[in-house]
Write a structure and sequence with these properties.
Length: about 60
């Protein structure tokens, strides 16, 4: 599940970037992936014994 969420977020970011040729890349895909993984690990720790509902608006 975490891998799916990470992939969806990266695809969303890349598709937005691809549509705007005048944008400058300031955060690499590796940095984004590392941050998403770190946030996922923290969420797993914080909600280990709880239900988690996530709403994503694109």
């Amino acid at each position: 599940m975490k891998k799916i969420i990470s992939t969806l977020l990266l695809l969303t970011l890349f598709s937005c970037y691809a549509e705007e040729p005048n944008l400058e890349l300031v955060i690499s895909s590796k940095e984004i992936s590392e941050k998403i993984q770190a946030v996922g690990r923290q969420i797993n720790l914080d909600y280990a014994d709880k239900d988690l509902t996530v709403v994503i608006v694109i």
